[in-house]
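This follows on from our talk about sequence and fold. Can you supply me with one protein entry, sequence and fold together? Could you add the entry underneath, on a fresh line?
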Amino acid sequence: MKTTDRIFQKGMALGLHVIKMKQPVKIEGEHALQRISQILAYENCSRPLIVTGPRVSKTDFFQSLLASLNEVEVFDEVQPDPNIQLIEKMVMVYKEKECDCFIGIGGGSNMDAMKACAARIACPNKSIPQMKGTMKIRTSLPLMIAVPTTAGTGSECTIAAVITDGNHKYSLNDPVLCPDYAILDPWTTVTMPASVTANTGMDALTHAVEAYLNTPYHQKNTAMYCENAVRLIFDNLLKAYRNPQDIEAREHMLDASYQAGLAFTVACVGNVHALAHTVGGLYHVPHGLANAILLPIVLEAYGSRIEKELAHLARVIGMEEADDAICAQLFIQRIRYLNQSMGIPSTFTCIEKKDLDTMASWADQEANPLYPVPVIFTQKDFKNVLSKAGKL
């Protein structure tokens, strides 16, 4: 199986150099949010559907945005882990109100819901399950403007949308899902609860580390994006967590999340995410929290195979230990220290032994053969990691 997976990945690597990857127009800095009215005018769009959740819709910056727009429809019912029923409800609103574009404001769930709805509008004869996987959409979508209010998911610049179907999460992956504009305004992130700052920051770190390890899919700037993101996160996440009003730290975290997003939209994520999606889908654990707990455990499971790579990332954040093996271990320790400093536990309390086989199967289906991870996990390997993460 491992041989055939590696053959598939070599083919994917060749294909990635042929496929034209889209990047959004990035507008960043304080008060970037107020540029949206100009973007709509420039794009000849007059009736956007704003996709968001109830918390964001009550913020001052959201109300300020509404005041700057003329005709607009608001769908503010998105909850974490958007499901198919929610997407179909959004599709009905978009059609009934004769909208002509999207603005997604919030965390990854809100932006993923926007992307999935846009895909359904563009492909009215395809259901969400029929678009599951890679390159199942392949048609132009309505204009999408993404405004992250968390610094972690990178959804504002990625080609993926994660959807929950029952207790199972899966991704739609297609270059057309990348938003047209990414609005990185640090003031939209200061209202995040501290736990969300922590979880989403660790989500961004996981994106950067996993993408860095997935060397077969790397393109010209992939490693650089990963290194920049790792450096920015270790320099700024605790600052943002401890002082929500630190605008400079918030700005750097948005930049880190964006660069990590650019990296993993090309290089993919890995076994950490495959496991996090199973834990999140089955037990409704926030995605960033699941990644934070699993990241050091999976890195340790990779063992000596990734010593050189982790040692390099350790030196990127200022460690000077000469021995690669020691440096790699210190990097994993720094991840655990970051988790501990923000109140993130080292293990899960929700995982049940009876679910291990199902979860391992789901993780295997997601990861293999697509993710070019340094060590291909079997279902037994996935079970072992889940057992350790759940203290079973």
Summary: The longest strand covers residues 101-106. The chain has a mean pLDDT of 95. The CA atoms of residues 227 and 338 lie 17 Å apart. Residues 222-242 form the longest helix (21 residues).
